[in-house]
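Q: Here's a chain of 317 amino acids. Please give me its 3D structure as C-alpha cells.
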Amino acid sequence: MTSWNIISNIFFERLQMETIESESLFDEFLEKINIIDRSILNVTKLPEKIYHYTNLNSLQSILVEKSLWATNCMFLNDKKEVLHLKPILHRVLNEFYRDEKDFAHWFFNYYNEVSNELLKFIFVISLSNKPDSLTLWSNYTNNDGYCLVFKDMLFTQKNLTINNKHVRNMVMGRNVLYDDRLKEELFKKFVEILIDYYKRHDAGLISDADFEQVKQFAMFYLLTFALLSKDKKYEDEHEFRLITPMLTKNINEIEFRVSHDLIIPYIKLSFPIKYIEEIMIGPKRKMRITKDSIRYFLDAKGYNDIKITKSSIPLRY
C-alpha cells in the first residue's frame, strides 16, 4: 500500500466518512494520483541524507527526547505557505481550461470551503538536503549552531511514532518544489484527472457518495502538494519536508510552544536515535571545547556511534 493510500484511510476516518460504494473506482483515482506523485520523485530525487540545522538547546532536546517537532502548517515561517499555490491554480485554469468555467467555480468554492479545516490537522518538519550550507547556518543558527545529519531515508518511513502511536508509512518525505513550470505541469495533470471525475459525476456515471470521497481526498492531496511548493526565493534552502496528518481529531494530542510572540501548535515525531549519523559543528564555534562537550554528552547517553565533525566553511566572525 502506498503512502497516499494510507493517508487517505486516515483522512476518511478523521472526517467520519461513509464507506466507499465503489472501491475499484477509488482505487483507479488513487493510482492516477500516485502517478503524479511518482513524476515528482522522478524530477526531484530523494536525498540519501537529510540535514537539520538548529541551536544548542534544540539539539539537546532532540537527543534527549529522541523526537523532532512537527509544526502545524498554518504557523510556518513563510507567510505565503499554501497561499503560494493559488495564483498558479488560477493561471492553469484560465490558460488551459478556460472553457471549464463551471468546474473552476465549483473547484475554488470547494477548495476554500475545506482547506482551513484540513490544514488544522496537517503538520510539517522542515529539513534540508543540503550539507554544510552557509545560507542555512546563517538563517537558522546565526553561524553558531549545529547540524544533525540523518543517515537513512528509511527513518521517514519506519519506526516512527507520533504521541506514542506508530505511523509507519504515514509520513511523507519529499523535496520542496521551487520551479513554477514544474508546479504548473503537475497541477495540469491533477486538474485533468479531477475534471474527468467531475464530468462523470455530472453525467450520472458516478454516485454522489463516490464523488464526495474522491473530491475530499483530491483536496487533501492538493493541500499536501501546496505544502511542497514554495517561492523560488527560498530555493537556496534546498528544503526537504516531512508532512504528516494527525491520527485523530483529538485536540488534546496537540502540544504548544511560544515563538515570536505566537502560541504555535505542534506534535512530536519520535524516531530511533540510530538514524542520526553525525553532528556537525557550525562555522563560528570553537572546535575543541565544543567537540569535547558534545562528545561527553553523547557518550553519557550511550550514543557512541554518532560522529562529530566541523563545518568546512572558513568563517572567522
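Q: Can you summarize the key feature?
A: The first strand starts at residue 50 and ends at 54.
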